Amino acid sequence: MRNVSKLILLFLVCITYNSILAQTDTASTQDEEDYSIYDNLEFADESAKRFASIKLTGKSPDKLISIGYDYQGGYDLNAGAFSIYPEEEARVTATHGTRVEANIPVISKNSIIIQAGLSYWDVNYDFKDKATLLNPLNQRLADKGLNTINFSTTVYKPLNETTFIIGQVSVGISGDYAMDELQSSKYNRYSGAILWGKRPSDYMQWAIGLSRSYRAGELNYFPLLMYNWTSYDRKWGIESLLPARGDVRYSFNPRSLLFFGFDLEGTSYRIGNDGKALDAPYNDLEIRRCELRFRFKYEKQLSGFIWVSAKVGYRYDYLFYVDQVNNGEEFFRGFFGDQEYAMENKLTNPLFFNFSINLVSP
Amino acid sequence: MDFLRKSLLFVSFLCFVVILNAQDEKADRLIGVWEPSSGKAKVKIDKIGGKYYGKIVWLREPLDPETQKPKVDKNNPDENMRSTPLRGYRMLKDFEYTDKDEWTEGTIYDPENGSTYNCIIKMTDANTLDIRGYIGVTALGRTDVWKRLKLPPRKKK
């Protein structure tokens, strides 16, 4: 018995000594670390590669979830003549609505990142003297407003240490539908974009590409230019994806950022006629809505991963015309097409503000 | 009979110790030098007091372009930490091994923005780590893939 006890004791002493020795060794190397030995290390797995990172020094954080509110001040809406209804000038006292967006990485590896996106915007129109409105466009906007739901998938694929490709496909469901009664899928609008780019340093990335988009209100094809840059002192930067948005950024510090730039916002909204409020055959009307927003934006870390964003600026009406789209079958007008619009409407331009609270990505 | 019982006791104890050591060996696979996907740094992971910690041992851009001095942790929300050199900074802290090739309960610090995130480390193969920084729930996060670097043989003193 005594021999067994001695053996166990010896074992325990050996293990304890080994552990202490290991810990002491680890701690001591911290103090006497020769960092030069890490200068020229190679991957343990010789087949491993380095890839261009999607992250850029100094760039504003990506938003995983955003909940916001958008408000435009008063303006005049001149609805064009339509069917038996004459042109009508109305006063919109405010246009406002919530904006909820989520962009969640589904796959996140060095060699590929796939992100799923979902956004919901609603737009409500408050008219002065609503009861006196006659033009069906004004009546519809006053009664139902507009909704848009957008699903997207974005793929970032680095090809090597400096070159990358970005692809995005999305489907938009936009119209004056109620959330409990979505419109037919034949009115869905599909968009896509592809970009090829370079990331020559941690401070700059650029890309060129092409998109099929409804951002200008109606179907169109645009060349794309992405340019993101940060100055070495990290105070100044540019964040742009033209023609969709462009910003000059000033960083008070990494948690407090000021931007000046613009957003091009738009899509095509189907106006339903299931209740036969409009005369036949106007069941397939779409508002081609596009706004150019020049604005200041301030983003600040509120606490931890919660950031707030506030925008204030001037909304310029680029397009608010109406097309007849038979049975939801889209057509291409582009910049030079001569197809006539069903209604030609004009909006004056108000100030706007937008406030959102955001959960940002690590 | 008495001898048999004592021998069984000793063998059981021996088995227990061997299992513990094997578990330690599995956990210690995390120890080494790793490169994050950005390639901007190299991080050495060590074991201290039964937990795993990772410190920055190399920076692609060691000098601050503005001051031309060694980079410090100037984005840290704690003002007292803003003069701490980034090289040698412990950015991974307090990781404990679970028996699923995962190290949990730790945090990761991002010197780029001064934020600290919850973190899970998963070893997908001997030379690859999935480092998932997340906010509250793991679904709200981002995974970065780190690759093991080959250390040169130690010089004899």
What layout of secondary structure does this protein have?
The complex is a heterodimer of chains A (362) and B (157).
Chain A: H1 2-31, E1 42-43, E2 63-72, E3 75-79, E4 88-108, E5 113-127, H2 136-144, E6 146-158, E7 163-175, E8 189-201, E9 204-213, E10 220-230, E11 236-242, E12 245-253, E13 256-271, E14 285-303, E15 306-324, E16 346-347, E17 351-360
Antiparallel strand pairs in A: 2-4, 2-17, 3-4, 3-16, 4-5, 5-6, 6-7, 7-8, 8-9, 9-10, 10-11, 11-12, 12-13, 13-14, 14-15, 15-17
Chain B: H1 2-27, E1 32-35, E2 41-48, E3 51-59, E4 90-98, E5 102-110, E6 115-125, E7 128-135, E8 137-150
Description:
The complex is a heterodimer of chains A (362) and B (157). With 362 residues, chain A is mainly beta. Helix content of chain A is 11%, strand content 54%. Chain A has helices at 2-31, 136-144; strands at 42-43, 63-72, 75-79, 88-108, 113-127, 146-158, 163-175, 189-201, 204-213, 220-230, 236-242, 245-253, 256-271, 285-303, 306-324, 346-347, 351-360. In chain A, strands 2-4-5-6-7-8-9-10-11-12-13-14-15-17 form a 14-stranded antiparallel barrel. In chain A, a hairpin with a 4-residue loop joins β4 and β5 (113-127). Chain A starts with a helix and ends with a strand. Chain B has 157 residues and is an alpha+beta fold. Chain B has a single domain, classed as Lipocalin (Beta Barrel), CATH 2.40.128. Chain B contains one helix and eight strands, in the order αββββββββ. In chain B, strands 1-2-3-4-5-6-7-8 form an eight-stranded antiparallel beta barrel. In chain B, a hairpin with a 2-residue loop joins β6 (115-125) and β7 (128-135). Chain B is elongated. The mean pLDDT of chain B is 86. At the A-B interface, α1, β1 and β4 of A face α1, β1, β2, β3 and β6 of B. β1 (42-43) of chain A pairs antiparallel with β8 of chain B.
